[in-house]
Design brief:
alpha/beta; Rossmann fold; Dihydrodipicolinate Reductase, domain 2; 6-stranded parallel beta sheet; 36% helix
Amino acid sequence: MTQQIRLALVGCGNMAQHHLRTILKQQDTTQIVALCDPSSASLERSAQRFAEAGLEPPPFWSNIDSLLSDLPGELDAAFIITPHAMHHDQAVACMEAGLDVLLEKPMAMNAAEARSLIDTRDRTGRLMVVAFQGSLSPEVRIGVQLLRSGELGRLLTIQATIWQNWRSATTGAWRQNPTLSGGGFMFDSGAHLLNTVADLAGEPFVQVAGWFDQRDTPVDILAAAVGRLESGAFVTINGCGDTIKSCDSDIRVFCTEGILQTGVWGGYLNVQRQGETQLQPIACPPSLGAWQQFLAVRTGQMANPCPPEVGLRMAQLWDALQASAAQGGQPVTIN
């Protein structure tokens, strides 16, 4: 029998509820030992998820420092699903306590924090995976393999769009508080777009230009950007966080011998090769999401597709987009 991983769930808000449902379907591999959140309402919601699964809820903690000091040697990993500004310090604390970490996106508020997390990973020797569902999905991993194999020819351009009723859905929430969130739609849901595009591209951005519209909020709601990759290929990005009730995306990679289409979270993969008249679906294995893929990395079944270097790559791109938008769309070079 496979030994269960002893997990602490740090953060029990809306996104954590989604992850919790899938983790509770993996009881053969995972034992949730502790829940941590300052909100009693969020902890009660989490307890209800356990009741629905026919399980007793684990003990609750209101802060991560108390949790780590109370459970020395009793945890193997932490899944951190908290406001963005808390990610760095909480991930450092967990790795220094000897835990492997699955960390929700965006990994860090900026490139400096991202480098600090890489240093902590190296110093402690712990595993760290960033929970970008796209890069962890079978669809994006297979898409990357197709692109790297040369089967679709040379990369020419990437066109990527994400849309959601994000503005209305996050009104009054921490996601529109820049101190906690570090940005708006393009740093939250849009972080998946930036990361998946960079993953599919497989080469550095060297220059970007971007524009933001806050739509009478404290954070970016609409975003448009253009970029140039090291090879000279072009990237166009569009983010609309103030549309009808919806949440979806479309990424198309145009190459000399084919076109690849997927979503920022994976979910589907279509390819059209030279001589074909339309996109054709590519069969991909099913997935239970980020936690299942984290376990596959932790047990050596797959290489880590989302190490903290991926978080640094996304943070550098975000820093450059912010700098360009602050200058009215002036191009910014990424070193």
